[in-house]
Amino acid sequence: MVKKTKKTAGSRGWRGWFTRGRVIGAGVVTGALVLAGGGIAWANAAGTASGYRTATAESGSVDETLSLSGSLASATRRDRAFGASGTVDSVNVRVGDTVEAGAVLATIDDADLQDAVDSAESRLADAEQALADDLASQTSTSSNSSSSASSSGGGSSTPAGGGSDGSDTAALSAAVDKVVAAQQSLLTLAQTAADALADAQDSQTSAATLCQPFLDATLADPGDTGDTEAAEGAEAADDEEDTATPLTLDAVKQLLADCQAAIAGVGDAQTVVASAQAAVQAGMTDLDDAIGELRAAIAASSTSGGSAGGSSAGSATSAGSGSASGSSSSAGGSGATASAADIVADRAAIDLAQADLDVARHDLTAASLTTPIAGTVAYVGFAVGDDVSAGSTTQVATIIGDDGYTVTSTVTLAQISKVRAGQTGTAVITSSGASYAATVSSVGLVNVSETSTPAYEVEVAIDPDGDTLLNGAAVEVSVDIAAASDVLTVPLSALHVDGTTYTVQRLVDGQLTSVPVEVGAIGSESVEITSGLSAGDEVVIADLGADITSDDATTTSGLGGQGRFGSGGTFTSGGTGSFPGGAGGPPSVG
User: Fold this and answer.
1) 15 in a structural domain
2) Backbone angles phi, psi at 288, to 5 degrees
3) Where is composition skewed (Gly residues) in this entry (predicted)?
4) What is the dihedral of CA 116, 121, 122, 125, to 10 degrees?
């Protein structure tokens, strides 16, 4: 039997597995953003003569949805407390008032919360500047930019090219270009690895959800019929029992098959993560090698100009070693050259600062206290001018529900930024397939994760439409969080993401140009472009000549990331937990 897995939260990015000079695994989080979009017309489907697959920006529709899962609970009473401490500046309800789900009950002064947002924005700007400075240090052509070069240069800080002939200048220019290319390659590989890790975390979450019904299943007696099952289920509902309804052997076998397939998917995703992390490490080595070659070119240029003396050859040998440790040894001092490990660490610091900013912005919403259910106000434990504490058990507003139902689930920090009280969707009871109208009634204000990655609760109100539903029944909820029609769209694969920056590559007269864009709704196949492109613009969606490096170091050519990796084994991420199973999975039934 598979050990029950407790739900955890979404990723902060690379901090958990990027450290200065090495890459490690990260914890697994829950919540999966399902982006459902309309189709899009694809242009130039067979690759172009230049070796790129392209599509045309054109008018279309994009729908973005959030998929949640949880269990039904009677919405008979809710005690609501503020998610942040502060002074109450408005109370919008009185005892006896009737309220709708998502209504604002009261607010607090948000000055301190706004200060936290401003501080987080400042830290993000500092982190971005640190990356820019380190990148610049690697392409500096002054002899004092490398401790090896300066120590061999007789104490002279001669600009590169000083006194050298044209060939030295050309060599320096080529070496700088190689460093810049290696920098961009490393940053792209790091982004790809972070995306792969997020996909693996979503896969683990999905597997845990799909396997839970099998773990909870009870096998019915061989003589039981479907009618007996239904009668027992009704009796359990009447008696308010929490035990699971016994299932037939075939039903349990199907649950097992679903669970095993999900576990296999986890293994596939983890293989992709390992391959992507290996590519990052190779990219770090390439960048350090390129830095070493630039330092050697600087030393050679100084020698030809007469400033380096006879010791320049030794300097070139030392600077050209290209090892990560050699480059790192010069970083940190005045004018020192940053290593590839420094660049990866800088990128991770930006992601951490961005996550902190997202948290601060989300916490700002804690200034409003909303009700997760429709009903009648039964108690208000605060007044205007009162100082309230976050999560208080006494300073609350109590709402008595009208015998409706709610579903509570957790989502990641990246997802929570798009969720708002009042958004609508559809809830489907897993066992029966019956569907009901759903409304987001409450968006969590406090991080409920037990790991380093934040997660927030989202509560959805379900309208039973007069039906009596079973408490504890599994429910899948699809929430519409964005929709756009008759808007400019491109295929999702054309979009490049770097933190909060979005770009696409345009193909103009056979030349690639990176174009910054702003996006709206993001679907499973297409994305809305709000600025940066015009209808008819040709964008690149794939480089048909790109190499694909698999986990066994073999290289092929074609569309990157389209191959399927082997499954099985135990999924373990960063040593923080494991999900047993794989090809064998849970024991067979029957």
Assistant:
1) no
2) -65, -40
3) 152-165, 558-590
4) 160
Local structure of 496: helix, strand or coil = strand
Find out whether 262 and 585 touch, Cβ atoms under 8 Å: no
How many distinct structural domains can be found in the chain? 2
Residue 189 inside a domain? The answer is yes
Residues 427-480: tens digit of each pLDDT? 999 999 999 999 998 888 888 888 888 889 999 999 888 787 887 889 999 998
On whether both 92 and 232 belong to a single domain, the answer is no
Would you give the distance in Å from CA 159 to the centre of its chain? 43
Determine the Cα–Cα distance for residues 540 and 492; give it in Å rounded to an integer: 11
13: in domain: no
345 in the same domain as 218? yes
Residue 159 and residue 78 share a domain: no
d(CA 71, CA 471): 7
Q: Domain range holding 412?
A: 31-103+371-544
Structure tokens at 257: 């098959």
Q: 326 lies in a domain?
A: yes
Regarding pTM above 0.70, the answer is: no
| Encoded tokens for 499 | 């933190």
Contact assessment for residue 342 and residue 22, using Cβ atoms and an 8 Å cutoff = no
Residue with tokens 């990027």: 18
